[in-house]
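INFO  loader      accepted 1 record
INFO  loader      residues=184
INFO  predictor   begin
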Amino acid sequence: MKRTALIVAGIALLALLLVGSAYMAGRLLGLGIGDLGGGDSPKVMIGTGDGPAVEVDWVRSEELPDESPDVAGVYERRQDNSIFVDETEGGFRLAQAEDGSISVTNATGKISEIVVTSETAVHVDVTVEDIDDALAEGVVRQKLEPGTVEEIGDLSFVRAWGEMRGDRLIASVLVYNRPPVISR
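INFO  predictor   done
INFO  writer      dumping tokens
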């Protein structure tokens, strides 16, 4: 029982931290913060579900555009130079069923195509790797590293900025989170 609680708590924390932009973090937690691209560091609440939430300052990575992503959702599939995502409402929320399976609870069913070109800046969000220090300081600084589309997989959260051409987004910037690792 304790192990299951720790797994669920870990998943909950990971799900909260996978939200790479302050806008998504605010929407995920239902704070109604709005677009948090610029200006002062917004306050967000981070909690694991088994203790009190901690209020921290969220500092968005300078590599990202100031506006909200044009497309944000959970990875569905990849075909050639396109990544298909199931758009989500209010960030990225995971739930674990009794049988241990993990699912995204707020996917809309609207599939969007993101085209990745040789000009697309692809980043992986690694903020979660330094989260203990960040929470102790009261400031979470979003940390990005160069990424590859080959690393994006099931339960990866993808955000992209670019130019809409018809029903496709030609991405100039793409950020993803690695799929969560769940051990039993």
